[in-house]
Write a structure and sequence with these properties.
Blueprint (H helix, E strand, L loop, with lengths): L2 H24 L5 E2 L4 E9 L7 H17 L4 E7 L7 E6 L13 H6 L6 E5 L5 H12 L2 E2 L4 H49 L1
Parallel strand pairs: 2-3
Antiparallel strand pairs: 1-6, 2-4, 4-5
Length: 199
């Protein structure tokens, strides 16, 4: 295989990997359109997965990027605690105030200056699987999951086929190298034996 062919194969592999990463951001668990009143989402978990933080970390790594891609205007933050035994929480902030009965104010000026606090929903996600965390988020927000289009499904299928073909090609290439190495070893042994006979 020439250097030019190797470079071409390398470029194709990198392009396929990039295409796969871009597709993974667009589709899959976490691809959700949130309602317009969702202002911010904050995830809090420990630095490591033990102690019930595995689901929270997987949600952050795998689902939060898709959620952000589908909702670029929504602020999404992550806080990682040093204390491993600490809480794991998902806090959703809404622009709309909480629904409650208005309390009478003492004066008109107090009524005009007091602003209602935005609504927030706190979800305890410790020991929860990432899919359960997503379910709780959907329940709290009323978000809509985005299903992959026909084109995206075709892309997924094509990438899987290319990945399988690449795996088979790698196995064949490895087998060829093994055979070549074995032949070289046999040739070395044969040359060594001939040399000894001549001497």
């Amino acid at each position: 295989m020439t250097n030019k062919t190797l470079r071409m194969v390398s470029i194709l592999q990198r392009m396929r990997k990039l295409k796969s990463k871009l597709l993974a951001i667009r589709v899959g668990p976490g691809a959700v359109i949130l309602p317009k009143d969702v202002k911010r989402i904050h995830l809090e978990c420990a630095q490591h997965i033990n102690g019930g933080h595995r689901g929270a970390k997987k949600f952050w790594r795998e689902m939060l990027p898709r959620l952000k891609f589908r909702n670029p205007a929504v602020s999404m933050t992550v806080s990682r605690n040093i204390e491993q035994e600490g809480d794991a929480k998902l806090i959703i902030y809404f622009t709309t105030p909480p629904q409650s009965t208005p309390t009478p104010t003492s004066s008109p000026s107090a009524e005009s200056t007091s602003q209602p606090k935005p609504r927030e929903v706190k979800i305890d996600i410790k020991h929860l699987h990432e899919s359960a965390i997503l379910a709780e988020l959907l329940k709290a927000t009323g978000g809509t999951e985005v299903l992959p289009t026909e084109v995206e499904l075709e892309e997924i299928k094509q990438l899987e086929e290319e990945k399988e073909k690449s795996r088979r090609d790698s196995e064949r290439s490895l087998e060829v190298r093994r055979k070549r190495k074995k032949e070289e070893e046999m040739m070395k042994q044969a040359r060594g034996e001939v040399g000894l006979d001549v001497a």
